[in-house]
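dumping this here before i forget
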Amino acid sequence: MKAAGFRASMLWLHTWSSLILGWLLFAVFLTGTLVFFREEITYWMEPELHQSVPADNSAEIAVQYLTEHAPLAQEWRIELPDDRHRTLDVRWRNPGDESRRGGPVQTLDASTGEALSARETAGANFLYRFHFELYGMPREVGRTLVGIATMLMLIGLITGIIIHKNIFKDFFSFRTQKSQRGFLDAHAFTAVFALPFHLMITFSGLVLLAGTLVFWNNEPRERHGGGAGRPVVQVAPTNFQSPPLQAIISHAEQHWGQPVASVQVSEPGRVGSEITVSPTEGNRFSNGRGGGKQLVYDGQGNLVEDVATRSAPNAIAAVANSLVILHQAKFSGPILRWLLFISGVLGTAMVATGLIFWVRKRKKQQQSQFGYELVNAVNLASIAGLMIATSAYFWASRLLPVGLEARPEKEIGIFFSVWLLCLLHAGVWRHRSGWIQQLGLLSVLLILMPLVDTLTSPTSLFAAISSGDWQRIGFDGVSLFAGLAFAATAVFLSQVKVKRVGDFAQLAKGLFAKNEAKA
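structure:
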């Protein structure tokens, strides 16, 4: 009896902790899942960069550009192309510039050295910030709300494990005959299949936002100046030789067994010049956040020092920093990143099916009541509407005029405007017909995404395939697959058997049926 009472209390806690901020959790999961491919999404939204093709001599191309445009610089920094970045980025620090990330920066075609200028766009950074800060409200308030939602998510996971005593048995039972039970099985399946990921991403996210919840210790940090700085010395450099740089990169890659990501040259071409190379972000758990490794060479290419960068000050900080790196997936290669993305999709589906199950379970008892109808409408707008708004945001990045003033803000404005329209639509068509209409629109936006890409990029998708541009191919492929999946869902909900082309007219007619009796 006591066990039954405990499980009942866990059921109550699971239900209400999940519903109260379930809509926010869906947005957090969806945007967080997308930003596993943050660089790739931003790259897709900047088509001017699509012509760049990585080359074996990208380092020499960078040195040639810097020698011509920044001969008196105190420091050069070169970001080499890799499997996530196809462009060549160079930055230099002029004499007397002591800012942390100061100096001009230029993006180059990695094979020709041509200077590239990308359009202004909020890119995936908007989704990243929305994921843990929310947009349009004070930063600390947004972070606190997301922190509370994350805590409730962790409570929901733990109580869900407790109340579903047959959770692993039910994992192999997917019953679609009854829609209510089908949503519960889908909720259990998506929860169990990626349960380790859900626990990891929720707990690590809570660690990331823990400071916002400890409101009594939220004192502002002091900012200290950078000191007097180094004396400005302008000396005409000798000709910097690029062959040693390529040899240095080859030696470093052989030494680490992984690609070099960046090269930093201090006092280029002058006496005392040093060249520091850093690898990609993989294998960063050993030293925690900010940790890693570097090799330092002199101007002639001789290895001077094998060093590790700043490590965590103690074991507790190291564990916390490792959780941060784990949450942000900075350590992962392509295969693991895709597995994390798929797990994030399952987590997003877990939240969505839980929200839908909540209203389906209460349909007979509470239908037509204001609270129930409100939850129905918000469910539709928070799930399908948010995905429509995100798709419209991607379209806006390509279709808005390139020279438009405050262009990033206009993209974000379209995101929220479309989301608001979806909410207004859900207020009228909030049952089955509303889901069919919004999922139908979502599928059209996603299926046409590859077409928008190839029509608004200087290089077609065929050129992307031939040059191995997997960032674009992956984005368009996922959009097409998701669009077909949502189209199939809309067809399934419409209960129309599409056997001939002519039947699509019947389906289109059913999309805007106003009869809610069958919902």
